[in-house]
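Quarterly update from the structural biology core.
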Amino acid sequence: MDISITLTGRLGGEVELKSTRAGVPMASFRLGSTPRIRRDDVWVDGSTTWISVVCYRGLAENVALSLNKGDPVIVEGRLRTTTWTDPNGDRHERLVVEASAIGHDLTWGTSLYRRPQRRLEAVDPSESADLAEAAPALESGDLVPAGSRA
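Predicted structure, tokenized:
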């Protein structure tokens, strides 16, 4: 059984992009969520809850390119417990969200969606138009990979 969870909060630091031992891209960051609490007639910040978020593959690469410290985000994923033993032999546990979807929380601002650019397929010079004419489009990013929609 999985525990599905949806969180909102802000990135507590920059996204860290690494690879697993198997070479799979992995991104991680800390998400902080601070509730607003009414005390008497005044709204104040409550205690911040921090949780670690990890994601893999294409989501990890896109998160690393899209999110920055302080960004408001929505995270959907599964709650996991990670365990490890430190050099002293002490065992530790931590709750981590393994994200399946992450996006900007548009309650706090706007965002611009862009598809990631895929690698352009190799061009056979005997079948292509003059590459000099294509150079400005390459530099401006106007070319779309073969087989994709514009």
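The longest helix spans residues 57-66.
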